[in-house]
Amino acid sequence: MRAEESARGTDTEFDRIELVHPPTGLAALDGPHVDYLEPVLRRHTVRT
């Protein structure tokens, strides 16, 4: 997918995917991320 977008001369939207668990792992990611990502990760790692 990335190669196809590059061939068309467009910027890629997703150039990598990272699996992050638990939310504290978010700090290890390079680059910007949305401000609501940490609360979403925290909510989905809560065990019931």
Please characterize this protein's 3D structure:
The protein contains two helices and no strands. Helix content is 31%, strand content 0%. It has a domain of 33 residues. It has 48 residues and is mainly alpha-helical. The longest helix has 9 residues.
Summarize the structure.
By secondary structure, the chain is mainly alpha-helical. It contains two helices and no strands.
Global shape: elongated
Total strand segments: 0
Instruction: Give the N-to-C terminal Cα separation.
Output: 37 Å
Tally the helices: what do you get?
2
Topology readout:
Elements: H1 2-7, H2 37-45
Task: Write out key terms for the chains shown.
48 residues; mainly alpha; 2 helices; elongated
